[in-house]
Design a protein that fits this description.
Elements lengths: L1 H16 L12 E17 L5 E2 L3 E15 L2 E14 L5 E3 L1 E8 L8 E10 L13 E14 L2 E14 L4 E5 L14 E4 L3 E13 L1
Antiparallel strand pairs: 1-2, 1-3, 1-12, 3-4, 4-5, 4-6, 6-7, 7-8, 8-9, 9-12, 10-11
Length: 209
């Protein structure tokens, strides 16, 4: 995990130190991004229950974004991806996020820099024939596009990611066995299904087409 984090920081540093003249916003109206994101989990909490975890949390996501520049300083779009959230003492979860994208470029002299907000939900939640879970998903942060050609460049993002894992089975007690039950029988567990909320730092590296 530390090696991946150092590699991402080295790449971001190279971009920030590169000559400003080589960086520009993708001036094509419509473009596609293919991104890989590493999620460094900082905290997760089970809603309404005394469970929280802050170590050994990580995640990986591969996303495809379709973007449209409605103005030089504003971009909107839609994204879809596949993610996996892992933890040393928590469940491993697959998600399929579908989300809306909004980006704002506040610096007219540096249109490659932008702030972003992604918000949406995951698909296939708790379906019996899939291994996907989830609920609300959202990200906020800042990024930079480094365009090498009109339809090819690199994309870097640093932000905060929030993922809801809905309907998590949680044992909260035992059912009272009937009076005529055999003494050797084990009581059945009672389950509740609260949401688990994962908070992560998001480091992304992608290609722009």
């Amino acid at each position: 995990m530390k090696t991946r984090f150092r590699l991402l920081m080295m790449v971001v540093g190279m971009v920030l130190l590169a000559p400003v003249g080589t960086m520009a916003q993708n001036d094509a109206r419509f473009h596609i991004e293919l991104d890989y994101s590493y999620h460094l989990g900082v905290y997760e909490k089970l809603h309404n229950y005394d469970y929280h975890q802050s170590s050994g949390l990580e995640g990986h996501a591969l996303t495809l974004n379709a973007l449209y520049n409605i103005r030089p300083d504003m971009t909107v779009g839609v994204g879809f991806g596949l993610s996996r959230y892992c933890g040393s003492n928590s469940m491993n979860v697959n998600t399929a996020p579908l989300y809306a994208i909004f980006r704002y470029r506040p610096l007219a002299a540096h249109r490659g820099f932008y702030t972003y907000l992604d918000a949406g939900s995951t698909l296939f939640n708790n379906a019996e024939d899939t291994q996907f879970m989830g609920g609300f998903v959202g990200s906020i942060g800042a990024g930079y596009q480094w365009m090498l050609k009109r339809h090819f460049g690199l994309n870097f993002r640093l932000g905060y990611n929030l993922q809801q894992i809905d309907h998590v089975p949680t044992a909260i007690g035992f059912k009272t066995p009937p009076s005529d039950a055999p003494l050797s029988s084990s009581p059945d567990l009672i389950y509740a299904y609260p949401s688990l909320w994962r908070h992560s730092l998001q480091f992304s590296l992608g290609l722009v087409f």
